[in-house]
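1st attempt posting a full record on here, be nice pls
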Amino acid sequence: MHRYAAYWFVMAALAVGCQQEPPNFVFILADDLGYMDTGAYNPDTFYETPNLDRLAREGMRFTQAYAAAPVCSPTRASIQTGLYPARINTTDYFGAPQPDEVGERWRATRALLPASYVSALPHDTETIAEVLQTTGYRTFFAGKWHLGPEGSWPEDHGYEINRGGHRSGGPYGPGRYFVPYGNPRLEDGPPGEHLPARLAKETASFIAGAKNEKFLAFLSFYSVHTPLMTLPALEAKYSAKPAPETTWGTEGARKVRQVQNHAVYAGMVESMDTAIGVVLRTLDSLGLANNTVVIFTSDNGGLSTSEGHPTSNLPLRAGKGWLYEGGIREPAIVRYPKLAAGGSTSDALIMSTDFFPTLLELAGVVSPPVDGTSFVPVLNGSEKADRRDLFWHYPHYGNQGGSPGSAVRSGPWKLIRFHEDGREELYHLGQDVSEAHEAENEDTAKVLQTRLSAWLAEVDARMPSRNEELGNAQNQKRP
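the predicted structure (as tokens):
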């Protein structure tokens, strides 16, 4: 063992109290769930999430947790590998157009061509499942994968059981969220079966079968991604629930929802929460809750500027597809009774890259080199600081209206660089979490500009390129 790795292993053992019994892990990942969509983060939310609220009461709630990207696949890759999407070039959702695939409308209206990206989780990067599996953990995956075509599905990256993970970014089979699923990794259940409930059932069944072994159960909901549909009873419930009238703001050329009152979306949130309750009760009934680390988070911000505009992220700005807070700040709850105080909160900066080294440290396993930083010291109360800078690189146009950009967060400061024109915006999030007013601090801006440029160079980030066809067309129109 390399001497630094040996040192890290010793420190890991000390951090978790030299525990003799490694914990189990249940990682629950929502899709497109906004920061303000649960009662634990927003007591005034329109949606009802009693099981997630319970999880927060029993664990630690992070108030400044981030996804590594404003769209799904890059964040999902970062969770699995602990690496920045820019480092492994998984920077857009898998299935987005490559630079040579954009259509005529794109070339006629947009200043940039997107950067090329890798559209499958690289096999030369270790996943959390692969590392844990080598130490004797059973590994299970249920739900949305969206990290490449066949040959790069969960079973190809360390998960011995896969229930529902394949290339698709949503439940787009014949019945969508209901049977028939049309999912190559999930057999149809009885008529009327609902996908969130089925995924919870599969996860609970795995846990019951692995109760006498160490395990990683990764429950990755397709909820609350489009298509927007829910159980009729839930839609009726929320349609009858008092709510304010819909109001709209604007974000660039897009309208943005400013009120939570979408009955179908509310039903989707509640049905996901109900499914989570099934898993939590399974842990309770089997006597596993005390030695199981339960993690809950989302892969990007709530959908507020496109595709039905189902939720509002206010006071956060914008939503999925944008580098503003509404697109990247996430709910994140960690319950581990042996380490984290129930009902506690932390404002430490964490990112989806950090789950990989954190889980490995809790398991007493040496982590390979990654971009993430373990937040075990935050869980045990020995560290509360902002810890280090966070970076984002999204060199693409989002379907939701966002444009190619990069960003850095350092302490309360955040700088966003827009690649179309090189424009930069500086915000002090401690004073302006809504990013409503650009801060005037030239010295801080220069420091963050330098750090962001250095990071982009260090990870060899791929950049968008000029759309020469647009430039030529504009020149031809000039008198």
